[in-house]
Amino acid sequence: MLKKPDKLYFLTAGMPTATGKGSYPEAFDALRNLDLDGMEFEFVHGIKISQKSRSFAKENGKDLLLTAHGPFYINLNSKDESTTEASVQRIIDTARVGSEIGAYSITYHAAYYMGKDKETVYQQVKTKTKEILDVLEQEKINLWIRPETTGKATQWGDFEEIIRLSKEFEQVLPCIDFSHIHARTIGEYNTYDEFAHILDRIGTELGTFALENFHAHIAGIEYGDKGERQHVILKDSDLNYKELLKALKDFGVKGAVVCESPNIEIDAQILKEYYYSL
Ligand SMILES: [Zn+2]
């Protein structure tokens, strides 16, 4: 059964910095002490987690919401067929581990355009997504598979592409990275009305269900004329997170908000505290 969230959970992207590269038990304790609600397992540099840690997370993370982020080295549209197939495998492996730790969903950056037109790349990503979902079905792996809205113009995965793909497959829902959307549009999507537009589109296209089973990334972000440059702390970014949280609240959004700022737990707490002050 897919976990059905009863509220908005505030997660750190990876272990809280206070635990450094410590152990999962330390990280889970730190999250609880910080009054945070869960963690995104960062497999961005490869899926490295011991069997012991997988079992630990599944048994001891029931009061938390857990998600996983796939490797950065994924491109479902590579010019090299073997890289594309390795990318399919990396997403499947992320889902397998996600399932083993009891995760609610996994997310990843699906592809690069590689100079091809948007429709061709869309069809390629769709074909590969179907291959991934077929394996997950055989293995009875039941969690949300979420391509993420990406931050750079060279990356497949603008807001409309992610919604379109989510409409095609039951097990696919968006991971909306609001900071990426803001950076990719070079400063747009930073007002209440613009955030509401995104949520309204999701509700209209995918149904209220998608808003009640949400997965978002929020971080301070720095951007230039090609989009995302780097994540920074909320205080040093122009991201209007307060209006964003208001919109999430007004639309009754439930699920995961993962904070990816460099000071992950501090900004996650800022987000959570502001959200509950509303
Ligand atoms: Zn990401």
Question: What does this 3D model show about the protein?
Answer:
With 278 residues, this protein is of the alpha/beta class. It has a single domain, classed as Alpha-Beta Barrel (TIM Barrel). It contains ten helices and ten strands. The strands form two sheets. An eight-stranded parallel β-sheet has the order 5-4-3-2-1-10-7-6. Helix 5 runs parallel beside helix 7. It is globular, with a radius of gyration of 17 Å. The two termini are 32 Å apart. The mean pLDDT is 96. The site of zinc ion has 3 residues, from loops. Zinc ion binds next to loops.
Summarize the structure.
The chain has 278 residues and is of the alpha/beta class. The chain contains ten helices and ten strands. Helix 3 packs across helix 4 (118-138).
Helix content class: 40-55%
What low-confidence regions span 5 or more consecutive residues with pLDDT below 50?
none
Q: Tell me the number of helical segments per DSSP (H or I, 4 or more residues long).
A: 10
| Rg calc | 17 Å
- What number of structural domains do the residues give? 1
Structural class computed from helices and strand pairing: alpha/beta
Strand content range: 15-25%
CATH class: Alpha Beta
Tell me the total number of β-strands.
10
Quaternary structure classification = single chain
Q: What is the CATH T-level topology?
A: TIM Barrel
CATH level-two architecture: Alpha-Beta Barrel
The dominant shape is globular
Strand order of the largest sheet: 5-4-3-2-1-10-7-6
